[in-house]
Amino acid sequence: MSAISSFTQAILNIFYQLTTIPHGSFNTNEMAAFLESFAKSNGYAIKKDSVGNILAYKENTKSKVCFQCHYDMVCVGLAAQNLALNLLQTKRKSNNIEQTWLKAQDSSLGADNGMGMAIMMYFMQQGIHAEFLFTNDEEVGMIGAKGLEIPIQSKILLNLDSEVLGEITISCAGGFDLNYQSEFITQEIPLNYHYYVLSSRNFAGGHSGLDINNPLPNYQNAILQSIYFLDKALNESEKDSLYVINWKGGEKRNSIPMHSKLIIASKQKLSIESNEFFVFEELKEEHNEMLDKTNEVFLQTPNGIEFKILYNLLLSLNIGVLDSIENAVQNSRSLSHISFANGNLSLAFMGRANTNDLLQDNLTQLKKILEKEQPKQKKESLQIKMSEYYAPWEKQDKSIASSSINKTLCETEEMKDSCSLKEILKAMCMSMQKHTEPFNITPKIVELHAGLECGILLKRFKDLGLSDIIALSIGPSINAPHSINEEVWIESAGVIVAILQDFMETI
Length: 507
Description:
Elements: H1 3-18, H2 29-41, E1 45-48, E2 54-57, E3 65-70, E4 87-94, E5 97-104, H3 111-125, E6 131-135, H4 143-146, E7 156-159, E8 167-172, E9 174-184, E10 187-188, E11 194-200, H5 222-233, H6 236-240, E12 242-249, E13 260-266, E14 278-283, E15 303-306, H7 307-315, E16 320-325, E17 328-341, E18 344-353, H8 356-371, E19 377-390, E20 403-404, H9 407-412, H10 421-436, E21 444-448, H11 454-463, E22 470-473, E23 478-479, E24 487-489, H12 490-506
Parallel strand pairs: 3-6, 3-7, 7-22, 8-21
Antiparallel strand pairs: 1-2, 2-6, 4-5, 5-24, 9-18, 9-19, 10-15, 11-13, 11-14, 12-13, 12-15, 12-17, 16-17, 17-18, 20-21, 23-24
Helix pairs in contact: 1-3, 1-12, 3-12, 10-12
């Protein structure tokens, strides 16, 4: 067995153990206790703070590097029910290299950021002289990072939450959560109308930042695709006589909606064929049991609003990619939830951007759209509330561009005794090139369109009197985080260990 494969198996054993411990956001106490016990059993001291962050460190030892990851996960599917996960391994080839991928059946896996946790815990088993920072509740607004009360002694912060082997992340997107509520005037729908339910299926969900520009049909937003489906399937006279009675869609605020269930009424009988993504079925009185019991309004309160009103509102929201540079998303907006019943409409959004200016513009423009008066809207009922906002992690050195790594430059330029971002980045580039070359991967420096904790942690450290810390982020390859299709390339975790070991020796 190769060195890398032995690393991989050791990390995998730890990760398997982590999957047996509940650690969804806001439900992390059991995992926190496990991490504390694990650290102490491997000879590390512990510091904790009031928001659940844990720092493991060697006493009486000077550390150069602090490894960091979050220990909560997004629970979708069976994980959301605290059920045991059935883990499946599959093999496939990429770049002529056979890869082994791990996923959970009908559930998110928790490789985001569980595989980073496993890597850190592997290093702790080896007893290396470093700091290990486990942050709490990252997936629900980076609560742990924002409330960090523990200083570190290391000058280098290595976040292990990036999700593509070969990428070195030097900045990331900030974000906001915005909630919209308003009441609309409805009208009673005659019982002799035709009632239908449109249910989504086979949508993958995915990360609302990393997958926002995924061109595959199943990665599209199930809520928006519902209205697009109806718009395309109906003629104008059918749309004019169409009413929305009930609508519920979306799962997690930071994931692309997988599900949407729309109950509509039409004066005319509709003839619409179901397809791979949508089931269209007429409802009769005896079909009440098909309705979502949390929004049981069909026949009991058959009131609705014109389809075109909601269609035009959702169309105006500009959901998706707003700005990009060379196919790299810089600014985006996701609609994560919809709820409509008895005239009450609720929408939830998550905006992301890689610069403060873009993020502010995104927020300002969305508020302007939502504040615009809509037909049949009870203006006094309008509520727009921002529940979360965090600034982007902008580049610590503006002269460094996102690009493929120049191998010759990294190998020939003399390393200097300096803790500048360029020198630290050079050391990481050299190590990454060495260990990714056998996998036919060309490393690159990137700005990530997702939320990492680095920027917030750097600000918190500055507040604690630590202003000269340099941050980078790397990690194993993970596909479709925050969804039931989440999977991790197992061998890539071993490669990350090898990269980090060389990096530690270089610095």
